[in-house]
Amino acid sequence: MNLLALDTCDARGSVSVLRDDEVLQTVEHDTSDDYSIWLLPAIDRALQASGLAFADIDVYVAASGPGSFTGVRVGLTTVKAWAEITGKPVVGVSRLEALATLAAPAGEFVAAFTNAQRKQVFGALYRRDGGRLYRIGEEAVIAPDAFLTWAEENSSGANVGWISTDPEMLTETEAWAARQKEGAARPVNSAANSRVPQHQGIEVESASPFLSPAIGKLGYHFATLKVFTDPLRLDANYVRRSDAEVSWVDRQERASKTAG
């Protein structure tokens, strides 16, 4: 199975070509060019370097967010157009879930987050079970310290593994420093505290921000299970509304109050 994976969710995007779960080639968005300019030439370079033609691709995989409004829309619109023309299947995957698959295989829970700008993160918590990840609650855009508290409260008291493309968003907060001190004050090997989160020595794993390889591998997993996404229903998960949408809603609300 040949797959083409796209990640245009933030400025650090990438495209990858895979054969099954083996990454053949990745091209990183290491320029200031808009995705509308960069994407198709990058795909062409990745295909040529892989020794494949576009017609050889069996499945299109796209990150459906969370991320920037324009970036996510470019990637999804592209694969939707391909699916309509070629009739080949599409898999839409969460960028955060793809990130979570890169976490060290230890512990019952993994919390994944990326920089959402405005001093916030896109974050999600997952529970491992039988080699699969099950999301706890919804993906969120949230302040880093609030995400730390939320993940702890929703992890059933178990230790949480952390992974991020931007670990400093959490590790440089006062809340994280305070948790590290709390962990140092606890008897780490105490049976009585075995279900209490232990922060001593725990780090946030740092992952490459170029996530199309992980997105492609997760897409391959879903494709083998025949879990495809209807292109007509493939929608972006922005989590946070775009500035334009927020501004429009605010104007509508003000106009409504004025009319009243």
Task: Explain what this protein looks like in three dimensions.
It is built from eight helices and ten strands. The chain is of the alpha/beta class and 260 residues long. The chain folds into two domains: 128 residues, ATPase, nucleotide binding domain (Nucleotidyltransferase, domain 5, 2-Layer Sandwich), CATH 3.30.420.40; 104 residues, Nucleotidyltransferase, domain 5. The strands form two sheets. The protein has a five-stranded mixed β-sheet with strand order 3-2-1-4-5, with helices on both faces. Strand 2 and strand 3 form a beta hairpin. The chain starts with a strand and ends with a helix.
Percent in strands: 25-35%
**CATH architectural grouping of the largest domain:** 2-Layer Sandwich
Which structural class fits the helix and strand makeup? alpha/beta
Principal-axis shape equals: globular
As for the number of domains, it is: 2
Count all strands and give the number: 10
Along the chain, the helix and strand elements come as EEEHEHEHEEEHEHHEHH
Number of helices: 8
| Arithmetic mean pLDDT | 88
Q: What does the largest sheet look like?
A: 5 strands, mixed
Strand adjacency order, main sheet = 3-2-1-4-5
| Helical proportion, percent range | 25-40%
CATH homology superfamily of the largest domain: ATPase, nucleotide binding domain
State the CATH topology of the largest domain: Nucleotidyltransferase, domain 5
CATH class of the largest domain: Alpha Beta
Please report the distance between the alpha carbons of the first and last residues: 60 Å
Uncertain segments are: 184-200
Radius of gyration based on Cα positions: 20 Å
